[in-house]
Amino acid sequence: MHTEDGSPQDRFPRACTLPTTEQPRRLEEFEALFREALRDVRRLGPTRLVLLLDAAAEGVARELMQREQGCCAFFSFRFGPAEGGRVPLQVVVPQAQMAVVDALAALAAAVGRGRGGGAE
């Protein structure tokens, strides 16, 4: 999601079928979710990431992940049970898409730092 030149369309993998014109809006949706609901980021491995979200944002997060999986079928999103006001969202990709998890983790950490949380 972050690139050397910073252009939004370069932040999405080639396997993504989301139209280029819609990619900046999708990125904004992820940023808003992380800014408002991200509580922690945990890297479980090169292709696995857990985002702890405020449980109140679960509906919004589920809807966004469903749309994201619709254009990037390589993603696997799994929500765990809410506990302590937080809901874990596990993100898994194939080895070939490891850079996508790297970018998602970096975006989550960067946006999370802006509100005082979300550090790995």
Description:
- With 120 residues, the chain is α+β, with helices and mostly antiparallel strands.
- It has a single domain (8-113), classed as Endonuclease I-creI (Roll), CATH 3.10.28.
- The chain is 38% helix and 22% strand.
- It contains three helices and four strands; from the N terminus they run H-E-E-H-E-E-H.
- The protein has helices at residues 23-37, 58-71, 98-113, and strands at residues 38-45, 48-54, 76-79, 86-92.
- A four-stranded antiparallel sheet has the order 1-2-4-3.
- The chain is globular and about 35 Å long.
- The two termini are 17 Å apart.
- The model is unreliable at 1-13 and 116-120 (pLDDT under 50).
SS content category: alpha+beta
Compressed to H and E, one letter per element, the order equals HEEHEEH
Please indicate the percent range of residues in DSSP E strands (runs of 2 or more). Answer: 15-25%
How many helix segments?
A: 3
Q: For the largest beta sheet, what order do the strands appear in spatially?
A: 1-2-4-3
Main sheet? Answer: 4 strands, antiparallel
pLDDT averaged over residues: 83
The residue fraction in helices comes out at: 25-40%
The CATH class is identified as Alpha Beta
- Terminal CA distance reads 17 Å
What is Rg?
13 Å
Shape: globular
Instruction: State the CATH topology.
Output: Endonuclease I-creI
Per CATH, the architecture is Roll
β-strand number? 4
| Low-confidence sequence ranges | 1-13, 116-120
List the helices and strands and how they pair.
Elements: H1 23-37, E1 38-45, E2 48-54, H2 58-71, E3 76-79, E4 86-92, H3 98-113
Antiparallel strand pairs: 1-2, 2-4, 3-4
